[in-house]
Amino acid sequence: MYFGAGTQRHEQAGPEHRGEATRSDAHTDLFISHLSALRYWRRDEGLGTSELVEGLSLDNATKSVRDCNRLLSAKMDTDAFPMHMSEGNPLYVLVGCKGARRYASTLVPRVWQGPVPANAFRRIGPHIYVSSPEFVFVQMASTLSIVELAQLGNELCGGYYLQRVSGFGEHTDKQPLTSRADLKRFALCVATARGAKKALRALRWVCDRCNSPMETNVLLMLCMPSRMGGWQLPLPAVNKPIEVGKRLARYVGGRLYAPDFMWEVHKAGKRAYVTAEYDSSEHHDDADDAQHTRIRRNDMKVMGYLVTSINASQVADANRFQLPARQIARDLGIYRRPLSPQRLLKQNQLIWQLRQEDFR
Asked: Residue 94 and residue 33: Cα distance in Å, rounded?
């Protein structure tokens, strides 16, 4: 255990005060993890409020409610800090060994044994560290279902964040916290840790640049395997910009388009593009944006793209979702058999899971 300025005060203190000085001045670090760390990242400030640090150790990780409150209070005295401890909102922290766990109604310790991997923490205040988005993804794998974990992965790699009760916000300039490649790289670095294998499995259905929860849900409904209630289509490029050439620019309203979902296919020796657009003024666009979406969709048809529209009512019911899903599959040259009652049930179960979002 390291003692800083407290060592000098300990030498100057009388015998009757030495124990108190040691307890109050001992250097401890607070390592915020799991759901508490996730809620930290669900803020518009994002990575701009933190500093990447390396070479950390959990040997001095705080394990008491008093120390956590002391460190958090010092941070809140100098900054608008969103982290609070309460019985309804306990703080999740990491400690270095099982013997260091001290459970309380306001504190939930989790054990991380072994060396701390690179890019695991970011400093957000004096002696306060928060798990990086990549580390949070692996940590949450131990408590989330595979569907929820895929949702979380798309959120971390997208331009939005879920808000505490309902709805969602958008990151500044829709810049994501991380990328699918970085999530995979970190999970591989901690491959033997609890949750790492599950995290790698969930990454099969994670794409970069989803800009809303509904885009994420549509993506998972289209691409998750049929045994899990999806249509098992290949992963598309999400919100990937398409630049319009000069020849076509005179016929359409813009020079740059970014379809919600886009697949590149080859038909009769020629390259073709299959696109899908989610159209909803409730979850995705306001009225002006909805009109812009329709204009963009027509422009892409003029450019020769195969376009399918998906609306909110179709996303809410597996039977209705068949129409756009089958159209996309047909455009991709993929045959899907008529749905059996069992598969229809699985698809409705997936829709129900996607709408829960219990990990806010």
From this structure: 6
